[in-house]
Structure formats: C-alpha cells, structure tokens
C-alpha cells in the first residue's frame, strides 16, 4: 500500500481539500506554516506547472545550446551571440538567442552514461536507474502528484507523442503512485479520442451510470484492501471533469493571430494546446517532438527540427510570459542523450551521452545563466558534470518541491532523488 | 566502347577533413579541394609524392569551386564567394553573395560566369572578371510542403552555356535561359524527397546533383530514392533522366548502392554517365544511357562528394569524406 509522507495533500486533508485550501490561504500565519520548511516548500509549489519538450531520438547539443564553431567536431553552423553577453548558441536558434536573458538557463554538462535509446529515455524519464523491486513513477507522474489538486477538474498529466518512432521509449508510468497519476497519453493528433459523451446517452444517463458503477465498485471493494483498486476508483471519479476539459485541446478556440505565432506544424499546435492546458491548471504536459536521430544528414535534419524548435519554443515562452503564466510554469527541453561530436561519413552524428545539454526556462529559473561546460571539441564535460538525478532535483526545486522528500511504499522509504543528490542551484532563482 | 572498361584505383590521399568540392586544372592532376575546415587544399594527385597545400578564407564548409583560367572562385556555407589567384593564392575579391548556405557553384563553359545556389533559395550569376551580378533567379519555394525550410542544392550550365538548371530539396527543377535569366521550363521529380509523416515527422532527400547531356537536350538529376528509416541514408541511390524541353522523363535508374548520388560526369559521347556518392560508405556507378541500365556499380573507400573526368575520359578524379582519389577508367 502506498503511504505518502507529510505532503500538501495530507496536510490539507483529502476529504476536505477545497475547504482546507481556502483556510490555509486565508490564515497561514495562524498555522505557523511558514516556520515548517517542508510545509513552506509545499506552499511554494501551489499553482506551479511544468511543460516538457521531449526531443525524442536525441537532439544535437552542438546544433542547439553548445556549439563548437571552428572545431573539427563543430559542424558547419556558426555560433551567434545571445542577449547574454559572452554566451553563444547555434545560429539555428536566433529567436531563442534574443530571449535567453529573459527566460532561459542552459545546462551544458550532462553526462548520463547511457547512449541507448531505450535505456537513455527511461533514465531521463525516471531520473534514476530502474530497480527490480520498485516501479518508480516518471517525472510527469511525480509532478502530477506533487503539483496537482485533489479536486482538479482537469487532467494532471497530459502527454503527446504523435510520431510512432521512439514512442515506446517515452515511458509514462505512475509506478507506485498509482493509476491516478498515469498520463492522458495522446498519440493521434491533438484531441483525446473518446472524450465526448456518446450522443445517444443523455447527461443524466451518464451520471446515473457513473453512480451505478461506483455503487458496484464500492460493494466489490468492501472488505478488500488494494491500492490499485482505490486508484482505479479515483480515476473513474474524475471522468466527468476530464470530459469537461475537452475544449482545452481545441486550438480553434484561439485567435488566428495566436495560432500563427506558434505556426502550422504539429509540434507548434501541440505546444499551443500545452499552453491552454497549463493555463487551465494542468500541472504537467509533455510534448514529444520526434524524431531527432540523425545518423545521416545531421545538419539537414537539424536545420529542419531546430528551426522549428526555435520558433515554437520562443512562441510558447512569449505567450506564457505575456499571460503571466511563465513565472509559475517551468519549460524544459530534454532528450534521451545528445549527439556525437564526431561527424560520420553520412554527414551524421550518432548517439552520445557524455557531454550534452538541456534547457530550463521560466518558473524558478535564473534566466541567462549557463551551467557547466564541455571541452573545446565537446567530447567530455570539463566543468560541472551532472547526471539525470541532479537535473531532476533542479526541476523539483524550481517548482518548489523538496527533492529530498521520501515517499513510502509499505514501510520502505523511497527518496524522490537518490540521497546526496544536489540540485544545480546556480540556475535557480 | 559503350562504357568504361576498367575501374582501377590509381591513387588516393587521406585528410582528416571532409572534402566537399573539387576543381581541376585542365590536363593535369592538380586539384583544388573545398573542405569542412573552411580551407581550400591544393593537391597534385598525380605527382609522385602528393602534398596538400592550403588556403584560408572561409568560415565554414567550402561546398563549391569554379576554376576559370588562373582564377578560382569558392563558395561556402558562410554565404561568401571568394575570388583567388591560383598562382599566388591571393584573394582578389570577396562577395557576401547569399544570406544562407551556398550549396554549389557552376562555371559557364566559356569560363566567363559563375552561378551559385544557396539555401536562401536564390541562384545568382556573376561575371568572373568583374564580380558583377548578372542574374538573380527566383524559382524555388522557401518552404517544403510541410512548412519546413527548403534547400537549393545544385546548379549546372548546359554545354553551350545557353541554359542553366537548378534543383532543390523537394525535387523541383528549373531551367533558365542563361542570357536573359528567364525561366524556360519547370520539372518535378518528387521521388527524391521523402517526407515521413508517421514515424519520424520530418524529411530527407533532395536533388543533390545535376548535369546536362553533352548535346544539351537532356538533363540528369541524382539523389536518393524513398527511405524507410530516415535516420540513415538507407535508401536506393536514384537518378532520373529528362528530355527537358518536352518535360518528359526518359528513364529512372535505381542503383543497387544505397545513398545519395552527389555528383555526375558525362562521358564525352553522351552514351554513358558516371554518378558517385554514398551513405556511410561510397560508390561510383556507371549508367549506360542507351541500354538504360546501371552498367557498373563499384564500392569506393569514401562517401564521394564531387567528381570530374579527365579530358580524354580515362581518369576519374574524386573527393569525399576524408579522401581524394583518382581511378583509371
């Protein structure tokens, strides 16, 4: 049975969450909540959201955030100045270059050891290696658990992966947190299938069917103890709320000028949906843009994909900022690994996990910072080496989650990140 | 002789760089090689002990070279064209010719003009002597049908210099009147472009090589055919032959080699054609245009980026990934 330690949810009390939220908001001082670091942290995370731009297949750090112009490994693209003096990124990202000082921090020192698509993707979804006896939740499930509201009428975790390549690697697993935190996983376009009520069923019918299902389920559960059964019932209890959120996925509700800013590509449209979702309170949205695996013609592939990323990411950050959402929304770019400095004879780059990059923008982030460095040819990390755990700890801290907290599965404490893991405080605001 | 009878490596020379473009001094083995380090290498491949000498000047890959007498014009991904004296190596002129990558240069047969194509999707024609721009040719879409940046890969003059052809990423070909700059024909060869809408949601391919037949009536375009797994150049090399005035496809050759056909050289009688390129390896293929078949397909030790035939068609010079080579035909 899952037994989570002191958390906002327990603190508020699941049975009266809404009322308790109001009470806390109204009278925090009487509870002396800010004297308790854990509770203070819990409150910091209220209303925080995360959008993960998952660059599936492995985006090249050299053609994005860590260019090496003039080096034999550097490839043909130039580096351009950014709005942060002394910091350059690839010429393929002029829009992000001008926004770096406003929104974004770059991490150039990921050394994650695993350059296999499946293993790398699991590592960068779980923040740790698999363990035979524990099924860990992925980043989205943890953030859904930590940032979601018990009384939420919107999904806690929405994941888009429209391409088929690499979809199986981009895991969505709630693990020991239970089915409540599984992703709403969209693979066909931008709108969840089967979310609408069937036309031949009236709203009253639908409600009554739900009540009948609940009655039967409770009768079945009577006298049984099962975490999965409880989480199953909890998921059902949210169905009507999720159905009501259908319009969030409909970008025709946006003005043409907003749609034009994101552009006509699927990735652009899905990022616009992501903005609509976080605006409505969805705590975690993952947009997977596949497929970056450029073993042949790396530079053509990156001209195509980085140009799109630069445009869409800039539009997303601008839009979030203009709506006042960016101070509470963290936008992360992440892959399973980067790409080799060595250019192969197909003018491609291969898998590489020894010195690659990620970016963090918005909520909790000190914009314009660059953490870590690779060597002059990009072959190794020369400064500030971190792995998946440190990156995850940084993400947690950025949204106000104590990365040292424990979950409990039975009597066993399971730390959110491995003991001793330190976030990259240099990039945190 | 319908096709070359021999194909024998005479000599090769390795380099750490990728050698992307090539120009040769007539009747010699002296090659100028445009490289990935932004330099131009001067190499006599037929000398007893070939040595690479280098010239600097570009900031990125040197993808086009055109040799007009003692003047070498080079084009690069840095968007610049540089005029240079080949005896002294002195730079005579630098033009900021294009706003994006220059992909290839072509020299007019009278050696008075040079044409450049770039990813700004414009072909520009300049006078060699003065550097003056003669034409600016717009005939290619800036975006692919799927809203991504397109690329203008290749250009060639007809043997008389009367026409000029350009070809792009999605397989669109324009034929221009080289004297007036007016477009005289458009062709499409969509088989060179793979858009993967389902598995990977991006594209690969494009027409990488182009040549007019010796009589000027046909053009041949090369690249790669449909690719299933577009992570790699894992598709059949592809060549299409057009009677361009009638906009009629005469034949298509799917080689048994995988990869891009990067460069062409017509045999002097127009009956055969050599195409070369590669994936992670390299190939040279000889196409019999009368029999309409790939007469010969040879693996070579590098992905080939550019080739040229000797005047008597008895030697094939090539440059590519980390190597320059010459074969006896």
Automatic annotation (TrEMBL), chain A:
Residues in the signal sequence: 1-25
Keyword Nucleotide-binding: no
Keyword Signal: yes
Residue ranges the record marks as coiled coil: none
Keyword entries, A-Z: Signal
Superkingdom field: Bacteria
PANTHER family with a match to the protein in the record: BLL7424 PROTEIN (PTHR43737), DUF1501 DOMAIN-CONTAINING PROTEIN (PTHR43737:SF1)
Name by which UniProt lists this protein: DUF1501 domain-containing protein
Organismal lineage: Bacteria, Pseudomonadati, Planctomycetota, Planctomycetia, Pirellulales
UniProtKB/TrEMBL annotation, chain B:
WD repeat intervals: 95-136, 152-186
Keywords assigned by UniProt, alphabetized: Repeat, WD repeat
A matching Pfam family: WD40
Domain of life: Bacteria
InterPro entries named in the record: WD40/YVTN_repeat-like_dom_sf (IPR015943), WD40_repeat_dom_sf (IPR036322), WD40_rpt (IPR001680)
UniProt-listed Gene3D superfamilies: YVTN repeat-like/Quinoprotein amine dehydrogenase (2.130.10.10)
Signal peptide residues on this chain, from the entry's feature table: none
Keyword Repeat: yes
PANTHER family per record: F-BOX AND WD REPEAT DOMAIN CONTAINING 7, WD40 REPEAT PROTEIN
Name recorded for this polypeptide: WD domain, G-beta repeat
